[in-house]
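Researcher: I'm preparing a figure for a lab meeting and need a structural model of a single chain. I don't have an experimental structure, so a prediction will have to do for now. The sequence is pasted below. Please return the structure as tokens so I can convert it later.
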Amino acid sequence: MRWLLAFSCLALQACDAPGDRPVMARDDPTATVIDEETLLDSEPGNGLPPLFLDWEGVREIDPSTGATQLRRFGTERAFVEKLAADALKVDGSRSSNDECGAGPMEFTSFGSVTLNFQDGKFVGWFAEGRDDLGTINEVKIGGPRADVEKIDGFSLLEDSTLGAEFSIEGDVSGFFEVDAKGWNVASLFAGTNCFFR
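Model: Understood. Here is the structure written out token by token.
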């Protein structure tokens, strides 16, 4: 299965005229249209993942048009929780941690995707274990390490105490793991997370 993915819209271009592209609810400058090649190369069904991960938040997808709309960090918690529950078809489970380096944080876990909040606002996310999740910039959970290393702005954090951690400038970060098939993307994250380094 081939993918053109990524939690960023660097790889796609939308038309300038509002009437030239589908939008979600209103003509929003953060809306992006998934190109025809992506629709044809994606999974059967509606041809789209449940949502796209983005270094600035998450991208809500309209399956009828392929339009995406960025829901940025700073969005109200209840709104993002409903979006994730509807897209991922999983009920959220809330938790909190008062000892995070960035200060007290709250979390809502939707199975393999955890959304992070501070003061009632969406501030970050962490995703693992679902190979139908990734970004518009071709970074996909379960994807080969060799493919990620070819992306402009890629760097491996040599001194990370958390494992084989990587970062892509202007995009998401994540961790690699090795299995019987070799090195792959184990998880992705963006924004503020509660890591103990």
